[in-house]
């Protein structure tokens, strides 16, 4: 269980940093990103980290 908490902490930090970065790079007047290729990479990793945070852990049998 301790391992799960550390993974959630790391991915939550990643999601916060990338979310802020994507927000700062978005131009609201023209609805474009400053660097579209880099924004695509940021969004992919951001979506993956949100998926890790939201998905339910599988129950493991105790041995």
The computed structural class is: mainly alpha
Helical percent range?
55-70%
Q: What is the N-to-C order of secondary-structure elements (H for helix, E for strand)?
A: HEEH
Mean pLDDT: 89
| Shape estimate | elongated
**What is the number of strand segments?**
2
Keywords: Membrane, Transmembrane, Transmembrane helix
Organism: Sphingobacterium anhuiense
Transmembrane segments: 7-25, 37-54
Protein name: ATP synthase F0 sector subunit C
Question: Helices, strands, pairings?
Answer:
Layout: H1 2-25, E1 26-27, E2 32-33, H2 36-54
Antiparallel strand pairs: 1-2
Transmembrane segments: 7-25, 37-54
Keywords: Membrane, Transmembrane, Transmembrane helix
Protein name: ATP synthase F0 sector subunit C
Q: How would you portray this structure in words?
A:
The chain crosses the membrane at residues 7-25, 37-54. Keywords: Membrane, Transmembrane, Transmembrane helix. This is ATP synthase F0 sector subunit C. By secondary structure, the chain is mostly helical. It has one domain (2-54). It has 2 helices and 2 strands, in the order αββα. It has helices at 2-25, 36-54; strands spanning 26-27, 32-33. Strands 1-2 form a two-stranded antiparallel sheet. Helix 1 (2-25) runs antiparallel to helix 2.
């Amino acid at each position: 269980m301790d391992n799960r908490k550390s993974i959630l902490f790391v991915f939550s930090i990643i999601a916060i940093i990338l979310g802020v970065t994507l927000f700062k790079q978005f131009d609201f007047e023209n609805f474009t990103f400053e660097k579209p290729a880099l924004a695509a990479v940021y969004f992919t990793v951001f979506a993956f980290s949100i998926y890790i945070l939201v998905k339910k852990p599988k129950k493991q049998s105790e041995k």
